[in-house]
């Protein structure tokens, strides 16, 4: 399965170079050009890592990073032309996991991405044995694919529906408070 990366970068040439390079390597890349679009995209879909530029229209990268960090522990890599120590420290202090300055090597960027995703998956406790949860009644939950099968037939769900159903399946209790279900459905 390809890891999904959200790239939030207003410079189309840089974004295109990153997208082309990483897509060849095994990543599924989504690109947005403003901080506001990046936040909207992040809230709609599930990603394994986010790459954020600092100087962007509508919402700067620092603000975007803060907003993402309030909702998720996903790895965030800031990529910026701002190379002063104060900018790097600010980025790391508001929640970024890494900071790379422009110009940068795409090979180095890939190595940093690999490292962060590897650690993030370890943090989440993902290993091969835990990727499929199988139940006696023919129900299978594929965590890495975010798919559910019933009697070997694939069931189709939106990301939010999958998250809610997976929560209910994994909880294994007869009662689950409505507000908790709604929080999961809304992504909170």
Automatic annotation (TrEMBL):
Entry annotated with the keyword DNA-binding: yes
Keywords: DNA-binding, Phosphoprotein, Transcription, Transcription regulation, Two-component regulatory system
PROSITE patterns for the chain: RESPONSE_REGULATORY (PS50110)
Top-rank taxon, per record: Bacteria
Segments forming domain Response regulatory: 4-117
Gene Ontology MF, one: transcription cis-regulatory region binding
GO CC terms of this entry: cytosol; protein-DNA complex
Pfam families in alphabetical order: Response_reg
Record lineage: Bacteria, Bacillati, Bacillota, Tissierellia, Tissierellales
SMART domains: REC
Protein's recorded name: Two-component response regulator
Positions where 4-aspartylphosphate occurs in the chain: 53
Biological process annotations from GO: regulation of DNA-templated transcription
């Amino acid at each position: 399965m390809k890891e999904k990366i959200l790239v939030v970068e207003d410079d189309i040439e840089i974004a295109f170079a990153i997208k082309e390079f990483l897509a060849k390597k095994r990543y599924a890349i989504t690109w947005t050009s403003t901080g506001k679009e990046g936040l909207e995209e992040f809230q709609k879909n599930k990603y394994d890592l986010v790459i954020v530029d600092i100087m962007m229209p509508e919402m700067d990268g620092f603000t975007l990073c803060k907003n993402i960090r309030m909702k998720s522990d996903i790895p965030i890599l800031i990529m910026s032309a701002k190379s002063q120590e104060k900018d790097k420290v600010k980025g790391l202090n508001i929640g970024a996991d890494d900071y790379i300055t422009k110009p940068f090597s795409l090979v180095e960027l890939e190595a940093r991405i690999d490292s962060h995703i590897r650690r993030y998956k370890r943090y989440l406790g993902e290993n091969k044995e835990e990727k499929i949860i199988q139940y006696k009644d023919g129900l299978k939950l594929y965590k890495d694919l975010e798919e559910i099968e019933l009697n070997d037939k694939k069931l189709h769900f939106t990301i939010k529906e999958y998250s809610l159903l997976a929560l209910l399946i994994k909880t294994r209790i007869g009662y689950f408070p409505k507000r908790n279900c709604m929080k999961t459905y809304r992504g909170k």
